[in-house]
Amino acid sequence: MNVRFDLPPELSASAPPEARGLSRDEVRLLVASPSGVHHTAFGSLGDHLRPGDLLVVNTSGTLPAAVDARRAGHPIVVHFATALDDGSWIVELRAPGGPLLDGRPGERLSLAAGASLTLLAPATPGAARLWRAEVPVDVPGFLAAHGRPIRYGYVPRAWPLADYQTVFAREPGSAEMPSAARPFTPELVTRLVTDGVLVAPLVLHTGVSSPEAAEPPQAERFRVPATTAALVSWARTRGGRVIAVGTTAARALESSAPDGEVRAAEGWTELVLGPDRPARVVDGIVTGLHAPEASHLLLLEAVAGAPVVQRAYEAAVAERYLWHEFGDVSLLLRH
């Protein structure tokens, strides 16, 4: 990874901007391109876009994916990450200090309302953080009744699920919020469309991140509709820029374009963007600010180039931007 910076702990956003007296689109926006770095508010995003540019947004909704469990009589938390095709789930076992790495095949955990889950095998052979688990209940319904949004130590108190949904959320399925789109409001989207900026949907259901250790992203389920693929081609042939709203949208788009041409696609993606696989379709990205050593930084380099990302993060630290899902946002442009 080429991008290097130190993140002071006080720059982690500990609450939604609404709790700080701001509307969603009043968070700060850092715009970085080869021509320089600019600072503004997210509500001014349209000043940095052009008629014919295409914003590609993720319409996945956030699940209340954290639930209490008991393990050998001791309380822990289970994060439900990903639903698999065979009905099992990828889960993570957590204590207050971080992930529990001593799971055992066949281990049974007690959940609320008499439910349980059984660990089957590590999700990745040789790894210990994520497990494939059998859960003999309707998991979405169980989460709706007993779950809460996943949060990490930098967010000290609980917030309602509505605070973890974006204006584009239509299809529940993400363990964690596709947070790059959180600052969008209906009014802002209306202004952008009125000014000639295009908006196209796709779906990628996010799994759980690893704030304690840098890990490559897990396989994730995605869908790029035919209409979105057509809009991408239309914009590119007419000189418009394709701007992914979030690393999730970038991953899905690039997964549907192995040869540089976006086509309708659906399934699972294991694509990892980085120096060995630069972006072929995405010209820019709206994204939150990621922690040092996060694998998402490689994706940002793949889209905008390491020099642009490095300058952006140096400026964000110097100007005391706020990090993580409730923090400030950047627009990184390749050109």
Automatic annotation (TrEMBL):
GO biological process, any: tRNA queuosine(34) biosynthetic process
GO molecular function: S-adenosylmethionine:tRNA ribosyltransferase-isomerase activity
Sorted UniProt keywords: Cytoplasm, Queuosine biosynthesis, S-adenosyl-L-methionine, Transferase
Lineage top rank: taxon: Bacteria
Organism: Amycolatopsis rifamycinica
Pfam families: Queuosine_synth (PF02547)
Protein's name according to its UniProt entry: Queuosine biosynthesis protein
